[in-house]
Design goal:
Distance between the termini: 53 Å
Largest sheet: none
Low-confidence stretches: none
Shape: elongated
Radius of gyration: 27 Å
Structural class: mainly alpha
Order of helices and strands: HHHH
Helix content: 55-70%
Strand content: under 5%
Length: about 90
């Protein structure tokens, strides 16, 4: 069963009138309209914030780094050698 949480919102008369008219145009209640609009805006914001934006220069550098030849540094080479010895033992 889905739980229901309550959210109260105070509006001035002009805002309420705008929301009421828009809800009527959409054929829904004010609560349904506000819920739908708020959810859509929240999803858009969360989607935007989860993206990493790079300049063209940064993208090219990143792309070259992930597609280039991997050369482990000395510390990683030592760790890999030690790990392979542990596996054999």
């Amino acid at each position: 069963m889905t739980s229901v949480a309550r959210f109260d919102l105070k509006l001035d008369a002009d805002d309420k009138d705008i929301l009421s008219r828009a809800a009527s145009l959409m054929g829904t209640t004010m609560a349904g309209f506000v819920r739908s609009a708020a959810k859509e805006k929240a999803q858009t914001l969360l989607e935007q914030e989860s993206r990493v934006m790079l300049t063209k220069r940064d993208f090219l550098a990143f792309n070259a780094a992930i597609n280039g030849v991997f050369n482990p540094n000395p510390a990683l080479q030592d760790a890999l050698a030690a790990a392979s010895k542990v596996k054999r033992a």
